[in-house]
Amino acid sequence: MAVGGLYLALIGRFNFVKGKVDPTALQESGMRYFTIATAIQMVMGLWFLISLPKEVMLLFMGQSAWGTILLLLGLSLATAALYLGARRQVVKSAVTVLLLMLVMVLIRDLVRTGYLAPYFSLSELQVTPEYSPLIFFLLVFALGIALVGYMLKLTFECRKEVK
To answer: Which residue, 39, 57, 59, 149, is most buried by CB atoms nearer than 10 A?
Structure first.
């Protein structure tokens, strides 16, 4: 909901509207949705944190320096996003949310690792390199680049003929 509201605000801010939609009203309502949803998500996030199993929650409460740094960074960015949303600063809110999403991905990875620690560790996996998918990917990628180059060449030739 928060990102959807921010998306509406960005559409209004950069005037990507068609028809009789008022971009200012779209921006205002989008930022209102963003701010309310962000406040609700902060409360839900704190509830989720305290509902984690003790071993996982302690990763964010000082047992792991990385987890504690991520939690503090996430809380700081969420608070900044809430503040910027309330001040209706669309672009700064969008940049803050992008950074916050990166931090949340890292936090989610730490939570998953904490949950799986008694049962599974990445160091237990045996790595067997497979080169044929890589070779196939590189060939298809090179073919795609060549096709895009060919299409651009045709486009520029067509534009020269029109002039």
So the answer is: 59
Residues 77 and 45 in one domain: yes
The reply to whether 116 and 133 lie within a common domain is no
Section 127-150 average pLDDT: 96
d(CA 135, CA 146): 16
| pLDDT score, position 18 | 81
Residue 118: what pLDDT?
85
pLDDT of residue 163 exceeding 70, the answer is no
Please say whether the beta carbons of 35 and 82 come within 8 A.
Answer: yes
The answer on pLDDT for 96 being more than 70 is yes
Same domain, yes or no, for 75 and 139? Answer: no
Task: State whether 158 and 112 are in the same domain.
Answer: no
